[in-house]
Design brief:
CATH architecture of the largest domain in chain A: 3-Layer(aba) Sandwich
Largest sheet of chain A: 8 strands, mixed
CATH superfamily of the largest domain in chain A: Acetylglutamate kinase-like
Number of strands of chain A: 20
Shape of chain A: globular
Strand content of chain A: 25-35%
Number of domains of chain A: 2
Oligomer: homodimer
Structural class of chain A: alpha/beta
C-alpha cells in the first residue's frame, strides 16, 4: 500500500470526458490498494477566461478579488472529479484550499504556502476516501482566498505530497515525461527515465514547460519523488529524484532554450566604482529580473560597455528605469529582442571538464556567434541570435550524445 | 443615511457590461450616503452550465459536490462586481457564504439559513465599504458549501437584510416590478406601486416568477421592506409591505396562473372511513405535493370520485405510488396535464363578499368550465382546461378593474 498524490493539469481535465478518464486512472490506483489524493487544475481555458474578466473589470485589480474569481475554476473541477469518481463507485470528496486548510501568506496572486493541516484529510485517506483538492489555491490568515500564481497547481501537488508524506507525486500532463530537449525541434529527442532535482530545476527555469520551477525546488527541499507522465497514454514517465538514485549519470542530460529573453546594451558607460549598483539596483527595485550580465572594459579603462538580459516583457520598463534614474551616464542604450538563450544541463558536468569548450566549438562550427555566456555548476548558457536557435539546439543535442537510437 | 441591501439576478449581471452598469447603480446609493450590501446571482447561463455538468458527471449526484461546483458561479460574480466597483472608486469587497459566515443546515441543494454572523460585515459597512455577497450559498456546520435551491439569491438577500436590520431590500430584476398579471398575456396589465406580503406570497406560490416564495415568507416574518425593480430602467418599482402601509386596498390585486399543474382523478373509490389518508399519506411520504382536492360522493354513498392536482413533473411518481400502495381500491385512474390553475388574489377579499361568485360568473359567461376550486382567505383558485387560460386571465383582469387606464 502506498500513499500517492496525483496531479492533473488543465488539458487533462479539459472537459467532462477527460475528467471521466482521470477518474478511471484514479480508480486504478485505489483498486491497487493505494491511498490517493488528487490535485486538479481548472478546465483548460477557464482560468484564461476568468483572468480576462478580472482585467476587464479593473485593469489595476485588487489581487484579493482576482483570487476570489480565478480560484473558482479549480473549485469546479474538484467537485466534478469527485462526482465522476463517485459515479464509478470510488468514494471521494472535494477539498477547497480553505477547507483543508492550505495556509499561505497574504501575497495575493502569488502566495507562498506556509502550512498545510492535513489531519482531517489523512483521516479520510485512511478510510479509503479519495481526496480531490482544488489546486492553485489557499487561504490567508485573514480568511481570504489566495492563489499561488500561474502553474501553481504543480506546487500545490508537491506541497500536499510533502505534507502527506506521500510515497510519490505523479504529475499528469499532456507530454509523456521530461525530454532531452523540445521534441518539436529535435524529433529524435529522448524521454528521460530519471532526472535529478537539480537538473529539473535548471530545465524548468530555463524554459522547459513541463513543471513549474517552484514546485521542483519544493520537491528537492522535501525530497518528494515526482513522476511526470502523460494523462493521454499509458507510457511510463520520467522520475525526478535524488542524484544518488541515478546510477549512470549522463554528462549532459538536456538542452533547454528560452525565447522570452531580450538583451540590453549600454554603450560608453563611465567606468566608476559602484556603477553596477547604480544600474542594477534600480532595476531590482523595479522588479526587473536581470539574468545574464557581461561587461567589456575599453582600452583606456575609462569607458565600459555593459550587456545584460531581461525578460522580453520587461524591456520597456527596464529602459524607462535606466533613462529616468539619471545616475547612470552612458552614450547609447540598445535593446535586442531577437535573441535566444540556449542551455546545456547535466549534473555530470561537475566531474567532466570540457563541456563548455565542446559547446562553444560546436556552435562556432555552425557559424553561430555567442553574445553572452553564463555558467553554473551544472549548466552552461549562451545567448545567440534567435534565427539560429533550432540549429544550435539540434547540433548540441547530437554532439552531447542525446539523440535517440533508432530501435 | 440608510442601510440598503441590493440584489441583482442573473440577467442583471449577465456579462461585464451589465456588471459595470450594476456598479454604477450601487455607486448612486453610496454617493447618496447610504451603507450598501449587494447580493449577486451567477451570470445568466452559468448556473445552468454548472448544473448540467454535475448531472453528466453523476446522475445520482452527491449534493455536497453539486453545491461545491454550482456555488462557483456566484463566487465569480461577487469578485467581478467588487472589482468593477473599485474601478469607479467605490470601496468594495466580496464575501462568500463561508466567509460571512452564512450558516445553514446541511440539506445540501436546498439548505435553510440558520444564522448569519454579520458583525464583520457591519464593521465594513460602517467604514463605507460596499459588501458584495455571493447569493444562493452558505456553509454547513461541517464546513462544506451549501446552496439554497434555485432562485435562492432572493432568499439570501432578504435574510441578509433582516440580519443587517436594513432599511430596504431592493430586488433588481428584468421586469419593472410586480404586475396585476403577466403582461405577455394582458398587455394593459398594470404595475403595482405597493403589494402586501400576503398577496405577494400568493402571487409567488401561484406562479408569478418575480420573487422566490421562500424569500417573501422570510420578508413577511422579519418585516423586511422589499422593493422589486428593474436593473434595466430607472422606473420606480413595486414595494412589498405590511397591509397597514396600503391606504386604499383593492379588492383584487392580481390574477395569477400556473401551467405546471396536472390533475389526477380516481374513479369509483370505495368510500370507507380513512380512505383520504390511505391516498394522500403515501403521496406525502413520497414527497408529492398535492394542491387542490375535491371529492364527489356517488348517489348510493358507497363509491366516490376523487380529483386532486400535483406538479406536472410528479404525475408518473404519483401514479406509481397509488398503483403500488395497494391499499386503495378504485375502478380507474385518470391523469390530465392539460389544465391550468387560475387564481384571483387580494387582501380586500376579506371584507368584500361576492368575489368568488363574480369570478365563476365571468368564466361561465366565456363558456369556461371549472374543474376544481380551492380558496383561502385572500385568494380563489380554479382549475380549467389549458386552452382557455389566456381568455380566462384577460376576462378576470378586466372584470376586477385591473386594466390600466390609457394615459
Amino acid at each position: 500500500m502506498s500513499r500517492i498524490v496525483m496531479k492533473f493539469g488543465g488539458t487533462s481535465v479539459a472537459n467532462l470526458d477527460r475528467i471521466r478518464a482521470v477518474a478511471l486512472r484514479v480508480k486504478k490506483e485505489t483498486d491497487a490498494g493505494n491511498q490517493v489524493a488528487v490535485v486538479v487544475s481548472a478546465m483548460a481555458g477557464t482560468t484564461d477566461q476568468l483572468v480576462k474578466w478580472t482585467a476587464e473589470a479593473s485593469p489595476m485589480h485588487d489581487a484579493r478579488e482576482y483570487d476570489t474569481v480565478v480560484s473558482a475554476g479549480e473549485q469546479i473541477t474538484a467537485g466534478l472529479l469527485a462526482l465522476c469518481l463517485q459515479n464509478i463507485d470510488v468514494s471521494a470528496r472535494s477539498w477547497l484550499g480553505w477547507q483543508v486548510p492550505f495556509r499561505t501568506n497574504n501575497i495575493h496572486g502569488s502566495a507562498r504556502i506556509e502550512d498545510i493541516d492535513t489531519s482531517r484529510m489523512i483521516e479520510r485517506l485512511e478510510d479509503n476516501i479519495v481526496c480531490v483538492m482544488a489546486g492553485f489555491q489557499g487561504i490567508s490568515d485573514d480568511e481570504r482566498i489566495t492563489t499561488l500564481g500561474r502553474g501553481g497547481s504543480d506546487t500545490s501537488a508537491v506541497a500536499l505530497a510533502a505534507a502527506l508524506k506521500a510515497d510519490r507525486c505523479d504529475i499528469y500532463t499532456d507530454v509523456e515525461g521530461v525530454y532531452t530537449t523540445d521534441p518539436r525541434i529535435v524529433p529524435n529527442a529522448r524521454k528521460l527515465d530519471k532526472i535529478t532535482y537539480e537538473e529539473m530545476l535548471e530545465m524548468a527555469s530555463l524554459g522547459a514547460k513541463v513543471l513549474q520551477t517552484r514546485s521542483v525546488a519544493m520537491a528537492m527541499n522535501h525530497r518528494v519523488r515526482i513522476q511526470v507522465l502523460s494523462s493521454f497514454t499509458d507510457a511510463p514517465g520520467t522520475l525526478v529524484v535524488d542524484e544518488d538514485e541515478i546510477m549512470e549519470k549522463q554528462v549532459v542530460s538536456g538542452i533547454a532554450y528560452a525565447k522570452s529573453e531580450a538583451k540590453i546594451t549600454l554603450v560608453g558607460v563611465e567606468n566608476t566604482p559602484g556603477i553596477a549598483g547604480d544600474i542594477f539596483g534600480p532595476l531590482a527595485a523595479g522588479n526587473v529580473n536581470v539574468d545574464m550580465i557581461i561587461q567589456n572594459i575599453s582600452e583606456d579603462g575609462k569607458k565600459t560597455d555593459l550587456t545584460f538580459t531581461v525578460p522580453e516583457n520587461d524591456v520597456d520598463k527596464a529602459t524607462n528605469i535606466l533613462k529616468e534614474s539619471g545616475h547612470v551616464k552612458y552614450a547609447k542604450l540598445m535593446s535586442d529582442r531577437e535573441v535566444v538563450k540556449i542551455s546545456v544541463i547535466g549534473v555530470g558536468m561537475r566531474s567532466h571538464a570540457g563541456v563548455a569548450a565542446r559547446m562553444f566549438e560546436t556552435l562556432a562550427a555552425k557559424g553561430i556567434n555567442i553574445q553572452v555566456i553564463s555558467t553554473s555548476e551544472i549548466k552552461i548558457s549562451v545567448l545567440i541570435r534567435a534565427e539560429y536557435y533550432e540549429l544550435a539546439v539540434r547540433a548540441l543535442h547530437t554532439v552531447f550524445g542525446l539523440d535517440a537510437h533508432p530501435e
